[in-house]
Amino acid sequence: MASPGLGTLTTGAFFSIVGRRYKRRRKKRSERKDRSGLRQSRNPQKHFTMDIEDEENMSSSSTDVKENRNLDNMPPKDSSTPGPVEGLPLSNGGGGSTSRKRPLEEGSNGHSKYRLKKRRKTPGPVLPKNALMQLNEIKPGLQYMLLSQTGPVHAPLFVMSVEVNGQIFEGSGPTKKKAKLHAAEKALRSFVQFPNASEAHLAMGRTLSVNTDFTSDQADFPDTLFNGFETPDKSEPPFYVGSNGDDSFSSSGDVSLSASPVPASLTQPPLPIPPPFPPPSGKNPVMILNELRPGLKYDFLSESGESHAKSFVMSVVVDGQFFEGSGRNKKLAKARAAQSALATVFNLHLDQTPSRQPVLSEGLQLHLPQVLADAVSRLVLGKFSDLTDNFSSPHARRKVLSGVVMTTGTDVKDAKVISVSTGTKCINGEYMSDRGLALNDCHAEIISRRSLLRFLYAQLELYLNNKEDQKKSIFQKSERGGFRLKDTVQFHLYISTSPCGDARIFSPHEPVLEGMTPESHQLTEPADRHPNRKARGQLRTKIESGEGTIPVRSNASIQTWDGVLQGERLLTMSCSDKIARWNVVGIQGSLLSIFVEPIYFSSIILGSLYHGDHLSRAMYQRISNIEDLPPLYTLNKPLLSGISNAEARQPGKAPNFSVNWTVGDSAIEVINATTGKDELGRPSRLCSPPPAAHQDH
How many Cβ atoms sit within 10 Å of the Cβ of residue 275? Predict the structure, then answer.
């Protein structure tokens, strides 16, 4: 029987053709099964990564994929033709085994597979060196000996020892590693012969830098790393700060330092300022202090303010000294208390931004700048708290707080608060008095200076009325005639924020990217990049019955009394301009100038928004070219400084009242800032004739 299309084939030929076709089909099916089985057997159970180049090569064509997968198991069909193994180029452009980028390896079942690519480890932060590492760097090759092993099997106690410089140090722990670590720590402690961390850092040549601003009003601080002490070899004489009070360095082996770089009483004026030591990089003040003095206890002292503007006060005692810190929460208050302790006891200043550093005065420097600034701030705030029943009085509301503190020697502990005041507004033009019975300017710092004048009048009257009380007065006879302040008497002005005008308008500090350095990875605050712009150093006037200042126009008309009464805007000098004037003519006023020599502020201390460049320009640098001053008058350049425990910003609307207090007063006086008089329309006591000397001495 012939099949269609086969012609006249014989029966034998027909079955021969069918048999060959059947064999070919069976062979193809067998090959397909082998290939599918091979793919399943070589399917990897764990993921691996391939280069982008390999992925492109494998996905270029199905032929290339098969060739890559079964390269070793697919012999060439023609023995005379070399296969891919012998070096023929592949269809995807790759060569044989000699030109592959990644060698193949034999997998399970004898099949080849791609070698797994190792993942690259991302570098993490550099971990701090423990005591064992540091001791090994200082004294390499030390031998640790196991002295004993006690305790049960589940809780053993190992004791290890190490000999360093002829001394044996022992350490114990639940493991040999921890026991060795404790022994190394004891050995390192024997090297540190300095009473505080700052001197140890200096002696050990630490070159740490950090620009973290811990004085800003923030609740959290960056938690970075702090390395422990690295101590030099005892064979080398260590460098240390001399204990004679100067800032020279000596290299004697006799280490006899005082327990604190801040002496209790300063006896030799002027006192040189010790150089600030670089702070340990990173951890917030509480962590750093805990490293230096473990186990300190922080006490909660008080809580004040309204619910939306709470203020907490925390305290800590370090080496017998009491330190306080305040903030909008307890965490921030603790950090500021610790920061104050670090600055005083260890001379570690965590804010190294140049514009935040004190600007020293040119005259006699009787006190350490930061210690003085913090003491003045604490005294003014403490007195204001007493006068307002721990800030619970309705008149404790304020935007700006100011005060004047008097020192009579080199010991800050003898400082005395002379005046305290608040206020941020000026009188309305229609309430001005031609007899001086209204306060025109109720800004806090202006009121504080007015209160200081009351004190000066009383002290001068005390000297003149009774010869027995002359020693109690702050005045003494002048060789040129009249009177002058005693040499040790100084006045310090405190303002809770920078004075309005030129000092404040440029003072808010923000970190910028230009200040970032690869080493510190911190944002730093640059100096004024445009000191010569016309906006710098301008005279400014306050806004009538409001807050803020505006520049004085060069073509402004002359202010007249009747013009103001008819509605012309009242021009009142900004506080920055008034303080700059005081630095030339003095703070005593025109009447007292007849009897006493000029009196100047020895320091101006800001509780917030302190910027050394802007404040110094506003206070005296913009008038530095002044010449031909009368005798005894000079351009005063007081100490300018911020405080360690910076005040938080006072949000909310400013009150319309101002309060004032002068030493000897029984209570505060409340003045309506719009009218310049008290709540009953009576003149302020600051406008009255000078009272008799009734101050307590």
Answer: 12
What is the rounded CA–CA span in Å between residue 179 and residue 157?
Answer: 9
Asked whether residue 324 is assigned to any structural domain, the reply reads yes
Q: What is the pLDDT of residue 39?
A: 60
Strand order in the sheet with 549-551: 549-551, 540-542, 572-573
Tens of pLDDT, residues 239-288: 333 333 333 333 333 333 333 333 333 344 444 444 444 445 557 889 88
How far the first Cα of the chain sits from its last, in Å, is: 144
Whether residue 235 is found in the same domain as residue 260: yes
The reply to whether 257 falls in a domain is yes
Q: Which tokens is 588 given? A: 């005593």
Query: Of 459, 455, 468, 466, which is closest to residue 486 (Cα–Cα)?
Result: 459
Longest alpha-carbon distance in the chain: 158
Give me the half-sphere count of Cα atoms (radius 13 Å) on the Cβ side of residue 2.
7
In this predicted model, what pLDDT tens digit does every residue of 474-508 receive, in sequence order?
A: 999 999 889 999 999 999 999 999 999 988 887 65
Q: Give the torsion through C-alpha atoms of 466, 472, 478, 483, to 10 deg.
A: -70
Residues 181 and 206 in one domain: no
Residue 685 amino acid letter: R
- Which pLDDT score is estimated for 459? 94
The answer on 605 and 474 residing in a single domain is yes
pTM recorded for the entire structure: 0.57
The answer to whether the beta carbons of residues 421 and 660 sit under 8 Å apart is yes
Q: Strands 540-542 and 572-573, how do they pair?
A: antiparallel
Of 688 and 95, the structure prediction assigns the larger pLDDT to 688
345 with 398, same domain? no
Please give the residue range of the domain that contains residue 177: 131-191
DSSP code per residue over 298-318: EEEEEEES-TTS-EEEEEEEE
Long-range contacts of 535-539 (CB under 8 A, 24+ apart): 536/502, 536/506, 536/617, 536/622, 537/502, 537/617, 537/618, 537/621, 537/622, 538/502, 539/502, 539/573, 539/574, 539/577
Report how far residue 125's alpha carbon sits from residue 282's, in angstroms, rounded to the nearest whole number.
Answer: 13
Q: How far apart are CA 96 and CA 87, in angstroms?
A: 4
The amino acid at residue 643 is I
User: How far is residue 351 CA from its own chain's centroid?
Assistant: 5
144 within domain boundaries? yes
Indicate whether 204 and 340 sit together in one domain: yes
CA distance 453 to 626: 26
Q: How many domains does the chain have?
A: 3
Question: 416-422 and 298-304: which strand pairing?
Answer: unpaired
> Distance (Å, rounded) from C-alpha 316 to C-alpha 334?
8
In a domain, 225, yes or no: yes
CA distances from 71 to 49, 63, 104, 113 (A): 20, 11, 10, 10
The Cα-based distances of 228 to 193, 321, 348, 485 in angstroms read 15, 24, 15, 50
Asked whether residue 388 falls in the same domain as residue 315, the answer is no
285 within 8 A of 291, measured Cβ to Cβ: no
Q: Which residues are catalytic?
A: 445
Same domain? 274 vs 335: yes
Q: Are residues 383 and 338 part of one domain? A: no
The Cα 318–Cα 343 span in angstroms is 12
Is 50 exceeded by the pLDDT of residue 127?
yes
